[in-house]
Amino acid sequence: MSDATSVTDEKNQGLPGVKIRLTSNGVSFISKVTANILITEVITAVVDLPPQKVQFDGGYVELQNLKMEMKESKHNVNSKLIPPNNVSIEVSDLGININGKVNGNINGNNNFMGDVSLSNNGFKVLLGINILSNNHGIPNIKLNSCKIKEDVTPKITANINLLKADEKEKIELGIAKKNNEILESMICSRIEIIIEDRINDRFSLIPNKLPMNVLAETAILEEVVSKMALRRRQIRNVENLRLKRQALRSLSSSFNLTKANNLLLDYGIVGEPKIVNNILEIDSVSEISLNGRGGTPFGANKFIYPEDVKNGVMMQLIVSDFVPNTLMYHGHTIGIFNTRIDSKTPHFSTMMKSSCSISSGVLFCLGDLFPTLKRTFPNRELAMLYKTIKAPVMKFHDKTSGGVKFNIAGQITILGIESNGEEKPFGSFIIEVDSSMKMRLSNTMTKPKVTIENMKFTTESPNVITQQELNQAGILTKEVLQRMVNDMLKEGIPIPIHPLYKLDKPRVRIIERAMLIQTNFKLNEKLLRQLTASEVRL
């Protein structure tokens, strides 16, 4: 049979299953969407800052209870990738009013009080951030620098009834000189809190092993809300959380193999993200395993991929054939490929008999394929049970080397159904199938279509199903088996990308031992808003 059977012998070297390559276009898009969301949060965030003290010749003032108010502005966002893992972000053309209370002393006039307004237009926020991962392979953002650059002189207005006009002007000039520092303190402190206390903290609460379905967003928010509630109550009800997670997984609707609810995809980051040739590269484990426990005995191969990225795309994904093979391996252990074919199965109903004739209205049945079975057990309704006897294997090659190869081996047991409904095994045989595959992509799934190239049958019950009959049946059953294998894979294989991303018109090319996906993407803004908001709500 084909070389697809050999992948399970490959040593696990701890290499990533997926490489994510974000181009400058992709990082720019993320920066713009995130900045738009964060601006609202920065304005509304509550930060306990000490009063801002402004000293000048002849006195001082303290600014208290300062609050920010966003002006209508068409701000711009620009980003730049800087090795080894830094992103510089500039948000320009911002407009913010700062309003609050002022008190102080000027020319011996003690303890005056009033209102103050700082009107800022056309200023910039300059951010430097590091893209890292924590000890558990979860994304972590570090704020390295935060600066404010003013291009327009701020307008300061102090309303203090007890003071003369020249005294108010002196106070306003003193505040104007310190405006940049005040603005920087208020904005940067809020950005730091949002990054550390919201984004990083909530990412740390999200398990990096998530169910492979469209409800992953709900699962993420459920995890965050539950763990935040437990943290506040200082309760560690781990069992309750586990039951909730299982309930969410059981609602799977995108990946509908009924026994696959507990197969989890590991989104964990391997090593640190790095910037190479103006591309942000992130390596991901991308192992699919039962309950996320890992344990796959083989590993991914080292990537050999083209350095160039298609012009204009936001992201390149290199998906090793390790990823689908972990699904095949762990799926086999829990029987997700096992199936039953009987008279109720579409396309097969009329042929599931040991005897048929023109007079009965059935022109062809299993008894015609296996005459010994027909003679030994005549006039019986039949059922077939299929189960894999080893993990199916999928192997990616470039087009010149044969494309995608798929090998699956299983046992078929033929059951006789008595008039009282009792089922008895009549015989069994082993079938091994080598196929080629074509891949079709949706925004969330890889949909394979199988074409059988080679089949091998081995009888286990020669008194009922002879080897000669099996060999002859193979010629006639190729189309039936092809349909059966395609039915097993019809729900597709999920593209291993974090639920924060929604791929937009992905294009696929098969390279040696990997699938190369070039794509634009949208961001799951609902989820992103929840991860940055002051409160997380389901």
From TrEMBL:
InterPro entries: Bactericidal_perm-incr_a/b_dom, BPI/LBP/Plunc, Lipid-bd_serum_glycop_C. Residues 309-519 form the Lipid-binding serum glycoprotein C-terminal domain. GO terms for cellular component: extracellular space. One of its GO terms (molecular function) is lipid binding. This is BPI2 domain-containing protein. It comes from Strongyloides papillosus (Intestinal threadworm).
